[in-house]
Write a structure and sequence with these properties.
Biased composition (Basic and acidic residues): 1-11
Keywords: Cell junction, Membrane, Repeat, SH3 domain
Pfam families: Guanylate_kin, L27, PDZ, SH3_2
Strand content: 15-25%
CATH topology of the largest domain: Rossmann fold
Number of domains: 4
Distance between the termini: 34 Å
Shape: extended
Radius of gyration: 33 Å
Protein name: MAGUK p55 scaffold protein 3
Region (Disordered): 1-20, 279-301
Strand order of the largest sheet: 10-9-8-7-11-21
Amino acid sequence: MKIHEKLRQYERQSPTPVLHSASTLAEDVAEELQIGPMSVEEKELLQLLTSPHMRAVLSVHDTVAQKNFDPVLPPLPDDFDDELEEESVKIVRLVKNKEPLGATIRRDEATGAVIVARIMRGGAADRSGLVHVGDELREVNGVAVAHKRPDEISQLLSQSQGSITLKIIPAIKEEDRIKESRVSGWFIVALFDYNPGEDKATPCQEAGLPFQRGDVLQVVSQDDPTWWQAKRVADGNLRAGLIPSKHFQERTPNLPKSPSMNLDLCPLFPTTAGLRRSFRLSRKDRQGSSGEAPDSGDPEFLTYEEVSRYQQRPSERPRLVVLIGSLGARINELKQKVIAENPYRYAVAVPHTTRPRKSHEKEGVEYHFVTKQAFDTDAQNNKFIEHGEYKENQYGTSIEAIRSIQARNKICLVDMQPEALKTLRTAEFKPFVVFVKPRIPESRRRRSAATSPGGGDHGRFTDEDLQEMRQSAQLIDLQYGHLVDRVLIKEDTASACVELRAVLERLERETFWVPISWVKS
C-alpha cells in the first residue's frame, strides 16, 4: 500500500521526462570515459552504461518519453472504390507476427461475398477489435478476393507478415455494435480425445484445438452453438481454438468419440465374468450384484463435464479415496499397508457379512456380522455401495460404514469394483479415484527384469496370465478411465505405498478440479 500511494502521489505531479534521448547521452558519456586513464569508479560506470540491460532500459525510456508506441505503417491507399459509400468501407491495418490472424471465413451462397465466419478469442483479429463476425472481406493487401477460393484467401492471409491491410465492409455500423459476444468463461474437463486433423466436420482444422481425455478446458465463447472456442488451462497460448460443442459431439457419430463409446471395437477384451478365477485376487470367487460383467448395453456418450476448483477446508470431512485395480494389482494389500503405517489418519470401512463370527474376531472390527435376512433387507434398500457372495456367504460395504470413518475425521480408503463409482461420485463423498495397475513386461524375455523382491512377482506368471492382466487394465481404462483422478503404476508394494501416501498428503492441502455440482451451494 505504501508503494501504491507513492506511485499515485508521483502520478498526480504529472511527471515529464527530463530529456528524450537518454540512450544518446549514455553513449556520449561512455565515449568521454574512454578518453585517457580511468579510475575504478569510472570503469564501473562505463561497464554499467554499456551493459545490454542498461542500454535496453534507456531505450525503453526514450520510447516512452517520445510517446512512440505505434508501429510504423505504410500510408493508407488512395484508390478507394468509387462505387462504395465512404462510410461503408473500413480499412483495417493489423501488425501480426508468425501467429495466425485468428479468423475464419466463408462464402455466402446467395451473394458470393466472402464473409468473416468467426473471430478466435485471443488472436490478432480479436485483440485489434476492428474485425467482426459478418464483415465482408473485399481486399487483402490490395488483392481483391471476390473471385478467390476460401483456401486461397486463407493462404494469402497466413503468408502475410508484419503489416496486413484489409478492406472490409462492416456488417453493422460501429455505433450499433452494442451486443456483446457471449463469453461463458466456464471450465470443463474433456472425457474423450480429440484431434482436429482427423475430423472432417471441423470448419477449419488449423483453428482446431487438440486435447486429450482429462484436459481441463476454459470455454471462452459459445457464439457458435456447434463449435465452441476454448483454451487449455495452464496453456501459454492466448489464442483460443475450436472444439466440438457438447450437443454437436453427441449427435454426430462420425466425429472422434470417447473410447468408451466403442466397446464393440474391442472383441479381444474379456468381460469381468470371463476372467480366470485365479486373477480375481482379493475378490476371489465372489459373485453377485457387483461381481457380474458390466452392462454392455447402450454406451454412454461422453463429451465434457463442467468442473470447478476445490480445496478441502478444515471444517469439511475428508474426501473419500477409492482404489480400483486391474488384475494383479493386489490393491487390498496396498490399502492395508498404508493404513497400518498411519492408523490414526487412515481407515477402512468395516464390511458386513453373513458368515459366522470366528473366535478371535470382534464385532465391528473385522466385520459387522448380520443375519442373511438383515443383509438382504439392507441390500434391497440400497444401503450397500457394492455387495456379493463368496462360498455361500454375503459380503458388502455399506454407505454408513464410510460415513462413520469420515465422521471421525479420517480418510476412508475403499477398494471397489469400478462399477461402484457411479454410486460414489456425489457431493457428499467427493471421491478421489486412484487406478492401480501392475507394470507388466512386454514379453517373456523382459519378465525377469520385472521381478523384484519388493513385491513384483511377474516371474511366476505365464504369458497368458500377463496378457489377461494387460487386457484387464485396458478394459478398465476404456470403460472408467474418464472417472480416474490418478493412475498408479505398481512396480512393487513398497514403492506403490510411498506413491499412494504422497497422493493422500496432497489431497488435504492442494486444489483439484472436481465436478461443479460438488461445490455448488
